[in-house]
Specification:
The complex is a heterodimer of chains A (259) and B (259). With 259 residues, chain A is of the alpha/beta class. Chain A is built from 9 helices and 7 strands, in the order βαβαβαβαβααβαααβ. A 7-stranded parallel sheet of chain A has the order 3-2-1-4-5-6-7, sandwiched between helices. In chain A, strand 2 (36-41), helix 2 and strand 3 (61-65) form a beta-alpha-beta unit. With 259 residues, chain B is of the alpha/beta class. Chain B contains 6 helices and 7 strands. The chains are: A alpha/beta (259), B alpha/beta (259).
Chain lengths: 259, 259
Amino acid sequence: MSAPPVSLAGKTALITGAGGGIGRGMALALASAGANVTLAVRRKTTGDETAALIRSEGGSVLVVEADVAKQVDVQNAVDRTVAEFSGLDIVIHNANAGDSAHPVALEEVTDESWHSQARVTWDGALWLAQAAFAPLKRSSAGRFILLGSAFGLHGAGFNPVYAALKGGIKGFTKSLAREWGPFGITVNAIQPAAATEPAEVFFNQYPEVRAAFMRNFPLGRMGRPREDIGGAVVAICSDEFGFITAQSIQVDGGLYTAV
Amino acid sequence: MSAANPSTQVRESKVAFVVASGANVGSRLGRGLARAGSRVAVLEDAPAGESADAADGAGAVERYPTSLASRAEVQRIFDAAAGDLGSPQLVLVSALPSSLFVPTDSERLTANEWTSTVQGAAKITLYCLQAAHSHMVKSGGGTIVCVGPSFALVGAARLLGLSTVLEAQRALVKSAARQWGRHGIRAHWISVGVGANYPALQEVPLPNGPELGPPPPPLGRVPDFEQDVAGIAEFLASSAGRGLTGCSLVADGGDWMVP
């Protein structure tokens, strides 16, 4: 006898950066589990593409144009979600700055390069937490999920700003989980390793790195955004995952095992 | 063949820079290093008079007031200290603005507090790493050690900004270790038990440790900056520590034994 599939019917999720890659994969997975989904995207065209995929499978979706670095945009995305779906239960901060995959020497990092990534990764996380706190408190099972990175755990030889900001997300996750625990809201981070467009760009630039990297996966491959990363997120959003909070969870096929 | 006594290897005269903000952290670290024979420059943004005891009992400590407000200012003060004492073999960074230690509900954090204080603190670490690199890469290497309170490993409610900065700092240090190891530059992070080390946190209900019962920790006391942390940094910078880089060390008397 097989277990019934996880159902998120009646729940509403908001995802930032859901115009492609892991964000799109998570949005599709959540929608197919029955959740209403809001896609908070910087470029509406990419959000519309994801929304079309969701609707083609019978899902319920709202697209809101939002620059997550702007507090007013994030508040608007949350407000419109609550108005459209009468609540908010799941929030996922997935948006990433475009230059996070570019190699940079630590001694050459400028204020500008720091800010271009921090405004999305850190500012977006705080604005989202502040805007979503009230509706998540009203939910019977609030979930706040942040996208971390294994680079935040082990540092990065290629982009130290990305590693630092993702490391910071780990601290953010643990402290917010302690703060929000009394309200029944869980806060977790996932560290995915997925075959996304930026990953492909990077590996096409450094094919020798791809070959060496793949040997490190016990499962022999990178994750699929919808099935592997989205599937794990659906599990985290389920009632069965309600006692797990403040964790940085590797969703990476066994890539990083040092913790 | 020479088999030097490890205890004598640790005691090596060196030039050490301590970068600090907040009352007397730099003074205590500076005194500890000076007692061990180092010539010490304390680069500190504490208000005038707050660190007047920096040289107490340790004639080899020079104080350099600074704002730490920009990369240029941090580089300038490093250059000034190096001009007087020589290039540093050890740089110890404990530069956390006092405003970060004020417990605040995350939903009440203002945009200014977040972007200026939290991101500002992270960038001070970045600037210090970059300034240290500029001298060490020319002088054949050295050791950089960042220091912060140990609760960052486990998070604390209402200290979202400080937790975020500290975990970012830890990842940044690991990236420095990865990028600069080839230049003979080693980088570490030491988390220090709160106790009397961080008076601003004494009234904050921090998580105590995984064991049942109240403090003290297994060693019976919390290590302090002058007697203990300076010595750990001195060891890391010595030839005895040459096989280590990118380490996260927990100087809390045994409260948190990280996996």
